[in-house]
Amino acid sequence: MFLIGLTGGIASGKSTVSEMFRRLGSAVIDADKVAREVVLPGKPAWKKIKQIFGEEFILDNGSVDRDKLGQVIFNDDKKRKLLNSITHPEIQKNIIWKCVWLLITGHQFVILDLPLLFETGNMLPYLTFTVVVSCSTDQQIKRLMSRNNLTREEAINRIDIQMPLTQKCHLAAAVIDNSGERDLTEKQVVDWFKRFCASRAHWKVRILIFLAFVVLWGFYKFILGFFR
Ligand SMILES: CC(C)(COP(=O)(O)OP(=O)(O)OC[C@H]1O[C@@H](n2cnc3c(N)ncnc32)[C@H](O)[C@@H]1O)[C@@H](O)C(=O)NCCC(=O)NCCS
Ligand SMILES: Nc1ncnc2c1ncn2[C@@H]1O[C@H](COP(=O)(O)OP(=O)(O)OP(=O)(O)O)[C@@H](O)[C@H]1O
């Protein structure tokens, strides 16, 4: 299985790109969705949030008040680290189980859309390849302001708490530029998908050569034993 870590800055276009990979046939694990699953009412992380952050972060219907929690953790390093220490181990476990399930069910390509891939580093040892989705800081600010209804200051603040996008681009094996029109991004996605397919084909050939070698070696030993 090819497990491809997809990351980027906040609102740089990770979901947009992972949706393009999904349309080409990849399975996608979205860490933001997993982060929502692990805080569903009654789950261990939900209990800890209720206990540590307080009842005021739980809505009447029992779910976590995401807006309120966001207002706090995006403005307070200590509280963010605290929330991370509650949610990240649960998110990681859930992702690993999802990967095992996708492996068992025969999926060849899995895109792991993980915003904090390089910040936490937890999933890096399991990945075949890393891809960063990039755009300019100005585009990030504009997209974040219009999607999340934030002020410019709030948007800049959310960008600044993550590792700089330029640094992520240096760490990744590939960069997909999402600063232009969506169809330009899609062309790059198709191109990378073709390369992944070619790379998998190379692996298949290597495995076949190895198996052929093992069979020939066994046959050679058998013949040698026969004439002794
Ligand atoms: C604070 C929460 C409740 C806000 O929820 P909300 O629905 O408003 O935002 P959402 O979850 O869709 O996140 C949007 C983006 O914010 C950024 N972000 C979220 N959490 C963090 C964090 N702890 N540190 C840095 N950036 C973060 C990511 O780029 C993410 O894609 C939520 O983000 C959360 O539970 N965060 C902690 C878990 C986490 O680290 N998630 C990130 C993916 S592993
Ligand atoms: N090439 C593009 N041109 C214009 N708008 C775009 C482009 N790509 C993405 N967007 C818009 O920018 C916003 C952020 O995109 P998206 O949700 O894919 O980012 P993300 O990196 O997944 O965000 P997050 O970090 O919050 O998970 C969305 O409203 C999306 O529709």
UniProtKB/TrEMBL annotation:
Q: Fetch the Gene3D superfamilies from UniProt.
A: P-loop containing nucleotide triphosphate hydrolases
Membrane-crossing ranges are: 205-227
Keywords of this entry: ATP-binding, Membrane, Nucleotide-binding, Transmembrane, Transmembrane helix
GO MF annotation list = ATP binding; dephospho-CoA kinase activity
Q: Does the keyword Nucleotide-binding apply?
A: yes
A UniProt-annotated Pfam family: CoaE
Q: Which GO terms describe its cellular component?
A: cytoplasm
Q: Which PROSITE patterns match?
A: DPCK
Membrane as a keyword of this entry, yes or no, is yes
| InterPro entries documented for this protein | Depp_CoAkinase, P-loop_NTPase
Spell out the SUPFAM superfamilies in the cross-references.
Answer: P-loop containing nucleoside triphosphate hydrolases
GO terms under biological process: coenzyme A biosynthetic process
State the HAMAP family in the record: Dephospho_CoA_kinase
Q: What family classification does the UniProt entry report for this protein?
A: Belongs to the CoaE family.
Can you name this protein? Dephospho-CoA kinase domain-containing protein
